[in-house]
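Aim 2, interim progress: modelling of the adenosine-5'-triphosphate-bound target.
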Amino acid sequence: MTTTVRESAAADGGVHDLAVRTTGLRMRYGQRDVLDGLDLEIRRGELFGLLGPNGAGKSTTIEILEGYRRRSAGEVEVLGQDPERDDPSWRARIGIVLQSSRDHGRWRVGELLDHFAGYYAEPFDPAELLRTVGLSAQADQQTAKLSGGQRRRLDVAMGIIGRPELLFLDEPTTGFDPEARRDFHELIRGLRDVGGMTIVLTTHDMTEAQQLSDRIGILQAGRLTAVGTLDELAAAARARSEVRWTDHDGSPRRQLTADPSHAVWELHQQYGGPIPGLEVRRPTLEDTYLGMVSADLAESTANATATATATAIRTETP
Ligand SMILES: Nc1ncnc2c1ncn2[C@@H]1O[C@H](COP(=O)(O)OP(=O)(O)OP(=O)(O)O)[C@@H](O)[C@H]1O
Ligand SMILES: [Mg+2]
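Predicted structure of the complex, ligand included:
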């Protein structure tokens, strides 16, 4: 009987359950710590969404994990190895879609994918994968002549072709039209659910992150400020649900609450029966994310203002 990676990982338990582990990871550019002691754990078989504002350090983290960038300090283990060892057999177990594509402008799409398939022991069938990402019609086209979204689909195909155990996707759907986005989501779910692949995804599309992620980490200014499932994050952010209904006189009513079932119970008592036009909307990931990021921004702005005021006071003191 075959076991999927998910099943064997679950049976394993402990640290072998982890595809990625970083402890105190630091990345310093000049005088600035872009990653400031990052502790991150990604389990085998899960889809981990790494979110955060522009410049938070997401791409830097991914580039360190895949061995593309050398860290300044800290411990990193990816599929049981330090990425800086740069072992080719380890590398073959990892797939990468970088934020900005590496160029192969003169190659034709089909040739390029065939060529890359040759590096791996058990690649996907290149023609079939081209069909899956919707590029069959472009097989004979030079990659330099692809549109932005088509180029991104090719990047995704190249990241997946080697049937990796661990796949890094850094903003993979930038430039995708809605249909390509939907097909991509199906492809990714299939890779995780059927293939047991571990996937690390960064995106600024909160709907995408909400639909695909098993767990989410929020990176802000080089630190992981929250990690958990969607529900865990919503609870931590005290994100509120919205209860809407229609009053006796037909006017729309709305209440924000952390406890929607209690609010509905109260309304039920008040109306003595069914509540007209009742709708309950749970907080979306976007609500939770914006709540967390803007609260943090407000706090750091308040701190910066306090520091600036203190500095001004000091400057004025003779
Ligand atoms: N090679 C480099 N030299 C100096 N600073 C760099 C270098 N690469 C990245 N940085 C800085 O590190 C910080 C984190 O960049 P990074 O690309 O990891 O952010 P990100 O979270 O991926 O952002 P985005 O959402 O815009 O892709 C930024 O302030 C960036 O300017
Ligand atoms: Mg980035």
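The pocket of adenosine-5'-triphosphate (ligand 1) is lined by residues 29, 34, 52, 54-60, 99 (CB under 6 Å). Confidence is low (pLDDT under 50) at residues 1-13, 304-318.
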